[in-house]
């Protein structure tokens, strides 16, 4: 996965598989930043980040990707199979469900519309796989900024759920809902 995705006006967005050892220091700076509070790794040590992403790399149901903006690291994307991790026993998965997390790197020079371009590129990437029928997310119920972004790309909240680490808003976005949010009919 390294296909280029271009944001509306923000420049080229690309993805590559995360290298847990090579990328751990960079990720550590992102996930421990105050703006990443919902990532729940504020007190993580570098070794904790390495260990977490080595476990993801070793598993068959969870994958992490480093996202680039015009060639510079700028975001993280994770996709997972909710039948096996994150949401087991919390909802009834359907064939073609794919779970997703994303994190935009902290910056001193925010670009207007960048986070929306990132989530759009992430969704494009997930729906590029014809087996993906629906994307599932479970953000913290208090994360209003991400709820607005999710709604902007077609997610519809279903209900609140209790996960071990948080109260989450279970939301879904079908291929049709995503493309409709972009003014494209299938």
First-to-last CA distance:
24 Å
The profile of the biggest β sheet is: 8 strands, mixed
- Residue-averaged pLDDT: 92
The helix/strand series, from N terminus to C terminus, equals EEHHEEEHEHEEH
Pairing-aware structural class of the strands and helices?
A: alpha+beta
**How large is the radius of gyration?**
16 Å
Indicate the low-confidence ranges by residue numbers: 1-7
| H/I helix tally | 5
Beta-strand percentage range: 25-35%
Shape: globular
The helix content is 25-40%
- Please give the order of strands in the largest beta sheet: 1-2-3-4-5-6-8-7
How many strand units?
8
Question: How would you characterize the overall build of this protein?
Answer:
By secondary structure, this protein is of the alpha+beta class. Strands 1-2-3-4-5-6-8-7 form an eight-stranded mixed beta sheet, with helices on both faces. It has five helices and eight strands.
């Amino acid at each position: 996965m390294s296909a280029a995705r271009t944001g509306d006006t923000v420049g080229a967005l690309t993805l590559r598989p995360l290298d847990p050892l090579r990328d751990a220091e960079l990720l550590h700076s992102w996930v421990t930043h105050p703006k990443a509070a919902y990532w729940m790794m504020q007190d993580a040590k570098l070794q904790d980040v390495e260990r977490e992403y080595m476990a993801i790399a070793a598993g068959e149901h969870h994958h992490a990707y480093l996202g680039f903006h015009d060639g510079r690291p700028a975001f993280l994307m994770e996709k997972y199979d909710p039948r096996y991790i994150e949401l087991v026993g919390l909802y009834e998965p359907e064939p073609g469900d794919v779970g997703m997390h994303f994190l935009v790197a902290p910056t001193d020079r925010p670009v207007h519309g960048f986070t929306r371009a990132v989530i759009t590129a992430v969704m494009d990437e997930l729906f590029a796989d014809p087996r993906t029928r629906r994307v599932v997310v479970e953000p913290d119920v208090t994360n209003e900024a991400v709820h607005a972004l999710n709604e902007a790309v077609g997610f519809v909240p279903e209900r609140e759920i209790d996960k071990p680490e948080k109260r989450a808003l279970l939301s879904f976005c079908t291929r049709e809902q995503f493309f409709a949010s972009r003014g494209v009919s299938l």
